[in-house]
Amino acid sequence: MRMDAAVEQFRSGTSTFQQQLEALIQSVTAERAQLAESTEKLKAEREAYEQEKHRVSQVFSGNEQVVLNVGGVKFTTTQLTLQNAPAPSLFAAMFSGRHTLKADQNGHYFIDRDGRHFHDILNYLRDGMLNYPPDGSDHKYLLELRAEAEYYGLTGLVEQIDRYPYGMMRAQRTSCLNTDDSWMYEDGHDEIVFSVAKACQLLGIGLCGTEGAYTAEVELLEVDPADMSQQVAKVQDAAQSYTKADGEIVRLMLQKPALLLPKKCYMISALIKGAESFCCEECLATVVAAGVRIHFHNWESPNGTTDNRGQFPELYIRAV
Which phi and psi angles does 158 have, rounded to 5°? Predict the structure, then answer.
């Protein structure tokens, strides 16, 4: 009896082992089939990519001339120039070879936009710069050009246009500029702390002028509203030198607009080296410019500027 039970137990174990082995073989076979299928799919995708790459290369050569008809005005350039701007540039997409373009009977490609601005668009694509005078005052043209740059997806050109002071408004915090007394620069930084009620851009900072000459090194910082002595982030910095010839209030414009957001606190900190300057008196705690309410917080800086007097007679902002 014991021998029969032992034989039966062995047979049962052998059967279980065989079942497990068969299941393992089935699993391995399925994985092999799946791997083979994935390999074939990858191979097909690579072949399709190579075919597309070859087809795209045959559509245009980089130096082939392309004639664009922009609102009835003809411009001649190359595919390489049109692809200079990265995505999401409309031109890079148009001439990538992935889209079917329909030329007119003369081989020109029509774009239904205003051709008056396209020479600036094309020059930007050629050299990456906006060819517009730094002191240019035709802000209407700049706004029109900005709309065109947005349409074509040229984000870099939009950023360059935004450095110009179109739509700039002056937020005057001083009610009196004292030109009789002098503001000395002996004890470090002059600072003001402020916040805005709605989003806007800070384009520049007004400083009190001088009878001599000085250099201003300015930082725009985000600070902790609960502890304004604690810096959260450095937003931007700028530096410039001034003389008596620059006037009673001088402008220090930022390299690019700085976005100011509500519920945040900002500090302007200036280290000024050189002759003494004029002085702000009777500064306002709150001013409104471009529909934006700016509040100046109670603060005394190392060199003496406070929310009531000292430096920073004006801020230059733009609504967004």
Answer: -60, -45
111 to 83, 99, 103: CA distances (angstroms): 16, 15, 11
Token digits for 302? Answer: 């190392």
> What are the residue ranges in the chain where pLDDT is below 50?
58
**Comparing C-alpha atoms, which of 266, 121, 143 is closest to residue 195?**
266
pLDDT digits (tens, 9 = 90+) for 39-96: 888 888 877 766 655 555 545 555 788 899 999 999 999 988 888 877 778 887 777 6
Amino acid, res. 188: G
Token pair recorded at residue 281: 């008196």
Tokens of 167: 């739509």
Q: What are phi and psi of 241, to 5 degrees?
A: -110, 150
| Strand 190-196 with 265-274, pairing | antiparallel
Query: For position 227, what pLDDT does the model report?
Result: 96
> How far is Cα 107 from Cα 98, in angstroms, rounded to an integer?
18
Q: What is the mean pLDDT of the chain?
A: 87
Can you tell me the distance from the alpha carbon of 256 to that of 204, in angstroms, rounded to the nearest whole number? Answer: 9
Contact by Cβ (8 Å): 220, 266: yes
What's the confidence (pLDDT) of residue 241? 97
Contacts of 94 (CB under 8 A, 6+ apart): 82, 101, 109
Q: Which two tokens stand for residue 163?
A: 């450095």
**Residue 122 and residue 60: Cα distance in Å, rounded?**
19
The span from the CA of 182 to the CA of 166, in Å, is 33
Tokens representing 38 are 């994935």
Distances (CA, A) of 238 to 53, 155, 252, 269: 46, 23, 8, 11
HSE-up (13 A, CA, CB side) for residue 41: 6
What are the structure tokens assigned to 304, written together? 């003496």
Report the amino acid identity of residue 73: V
Cα radius of gyration rounded to whole Å, the chain: 34
